[in-house]
Queue: 4 jobs
Job 1
Amino acid sequence: MTPQVVLVHGIRTSATMWRAQLAYLDGLGVPAVAVDLPGHGTRMDEDFTLHEALSTIDRAVREAATRGPVLLVGHSMGGLLSLAYTGGEEKPPVSALIAASCSALPRGAALRAYRFLAGAMDVLPDRGSWISERVLDATMPPETRADFGAGGFALDAQDIALKSLAGLDLAAAVARIRIPLWLVNGQFDQLRMHETLFRRLAPQAELIVVPLTTHLVTAMRPRVFNAVLGVALATIEHDAPSAS
């Protein structure tokens, strides 16, 4: 059976952040779907809830699993949600997981600091849009520059989404994951503070640190990230039972 890929975006952005990966997978002939979480992208008018975010992932994974083994891929908040989903008490039909820019427990001082900075940006006259655009201009290659904002920025959902993540028991979830797992982080990613803990909890995980890259690793280094997708797909195909 052909592997299927489900992609889950990070906070504020939408499914459009995965355009480079969708194009790569399409070129391989691998079916893929990028979901929009509640309060983001095409669902901007919805309220963000942890339950609906996890349910969105579950629906996409189970639908894809009817056609083949599923590679689940999440970035930032989407990665945290994908770790929590895959490591749930009831094992979902996920064959492999790539968790990018999310090797951190969303709690305590780090989460409070992130919410404070997001709140500080939000009170600016343009809600921090000018600063955000300049950062993207400085860090993104031309081929992915527009992708993060193409579906709009979910500014209204940001704080409630961040607050909701504190309800995830990531340590317990990561410890329950037994499938192939790749942790992909940029060298200067602020959300790699618990890499050592994650690797201890999931000893089968492979850690990939992309040099000279920040949090937006999927868009800053799309060819590198696509290579990781290729490795994960090859692993799934190798581990798949023979059709004979």
Note: The radius of gyration is 17 Å.
Job 2
Amino acid sequence: MIRKYEIIETEDGSHTLRLADTAVTFHSNRGAIQESAHIFIQSAFEYFIQNNPSIKELRIFEVGFGTGLNALLTSIAARRNGRQVVYRSIDLYPLAGDIFSRLNYAEILNERELYKTIMQTPWEQLIYIDPFFKLQKINIDLAQYEFTTKYDLIYFDAFAPEDQQEIWDPSIFVRLFNALESGGVLVTYCSKTIIRKTLESAGFMVEKIPGPRGKREIVRARKP
């Protein structure tokens, strides 16, 4: 299946993608970089290391590699905080080079070589991007993915439940719960009641926390 995309500029000046002929976007129109930094870096990565200062290597699993923005921001955060990160991300529809090469994250963040390396690294291989960040991009559907290791953090960045209902199925969150280390954290932008209840049913301790600009709340879920 070939997807077509439109590049749009969000309110913080950074780009996102919209699926052509739909209203479905990869990030908030209020700001792609500010949204990802708030949800996945401040509310997950930095939260976790503040509460687990002795852990020097983090294993992170991302649902939805997309534009690579979360991976880019995490690599920058790993270097800034002196933490080793093993980062695995799955996506069924990898972006072609003629799309990601026109996104402006690298220019805004002044990380041109880092972003280029992240996006051009071959899929399926676990590769050092820099001394702090090891990346494996996997072209697979989440329902078919077999977890073979435990993770400290899960970035759940799929499309919204109304746009990708199957990936928000209760059985998915049971599998993600089992894939986390005790004390591990899953974070997602979706704070709908049905999603919070689904997470709780899977065993998570769920809290609503303040969201990024334009979104009142997001969800952080911990494995006891």
Note: Strands lie at 5-9, 15-19, 57-63, 84-90, 126-130, 133-138, 151-156, 180-188, 205-210, 217-222.
Job 3
Amino acid sequence: MGATTDTYAATERTVPTRSRDRASYDRTLVHSILDGAHVCHLGFVRDGAPVVLPTLYARVGERLYVHGSTGSRPLRAAGDGVAAPGLPVCLTVTHVDGLVLARSAFHHSINYRSVVVHGTAHQVTDAEERRTALDAIVDHVVPGRSADSRPANAKELAATAVVRIDLDEVSAKVRTGGPRDDAEDLDLPHWSGVIPVQGGYGTPIPADDLDPAIALPDYLTAR
């Protein structure tokens, strides 16, 4: 597991080939990007071909936990416990912050914050660690929710798989600012600028069969 310094060590796999000036190995930045998203994309090789799956996850310290099904082929390949060979993976998380419209089609872009994690996924089999991981995944979706819902029963736990990936080879990449138009295009009669993309939460919609006497919990009214 990575040392608890302010930055992650750059490796051959985490140094980008393009726009290296946008790369960062700052631990606080990486954590903020991971903690602020809801879905990750998990990439691996299956039967010689690349596969990328969207799934839920959560960060606990310097470790990511990824949710899946025990019938999932990649999770079976991740093996049982740390002693198993595990499954080489690449996990990514991206926030889109703005659409960048340049005067030329070539310079159109987006403002974004992203994290790429390279590592080996291992299936979590320890009962206590599994419950901690599953609670963290539920709370990553809505903080405080794991304490306000029924825990998984034995049948549900048997059908649920969790894999862990240590945050060792990690990098963030960020683009901010406006378009980078070429000097010869600055007088063109085309609008140029940034359209911000802002996330947010709407008003909670109760389930059709919810008892009207059950009030909206505090952790939802505060959002």
Note: The chain has a mean pLDDT of 90.
Job 4
Amino acid sequence: MITDPWVLLLLVLAGVGAGLTGATAGLASLVSYPALLAAGLPPVTANITNTVAMLGTTAGAAAGARPELAGQRRRLVPLCAITTVGGAVGGLVLLLTPSGAFTVIVPWLIGGASLVLMAGPRLRRLAEGAEHHGLSPATAVIAFLIGSYGGYFGAAAGVLMLALLVTVWNQPLARTNAAKNLVTGSANFLAAIVFSVTGKVVWPAALAVCLGSLGGSWLGSVLVRRLPATPLRIAIGIGGLGLAVVLGLRA
């Protein structure tokens, strides 16, 4: 149990950073997850606690991006349903697999997510030339897999979802980014409910990160309309690769 007020304050600040980067770059967990590890939580416990805490990012991002979300309900509802089920599946996989397996897999997930993040603009440029479609079976399957990944770990799930949505929706990036935040947040929803009843959530830490991420994601949704995310994206990607190497050596 985390009770040190200074540790909780640092987790709130980490939550602000996670919300800010999640709303702008889709990489909230690469800020909040290491912070929970630094607070002394074991890897699986930190991941479970982080999944619950990231609900604040979804709420804050949705509140800050209401203008961008207007008129998108018809296509967001089925996508959110798909990723919600996927997130529940990913959460169950996490609970049913040995913790040692998670420790080994996580460095690869973080490293891969960091590479995807840094390649994000190139992926979007490639996608811009693609033909735009509705919710095809292939889109639904990919969204489900991204949702499952989000429920299992989630770092850069937003980047993967943004790359998918850009290929199927022809609209301004700010609107697609707002939709991405809601769709990936849905993947966390059922997973967070599942985790909440397991007794493995460290609630003081979860609430501290959630509180910070609520404000950070709201601010990030406002800033994404005005500020380029490239320097932040590159810095977080490099930091993520460094974290992957450190965790890989420890594993």
Note: Residues 73-96 form the longest helix (24 residues).
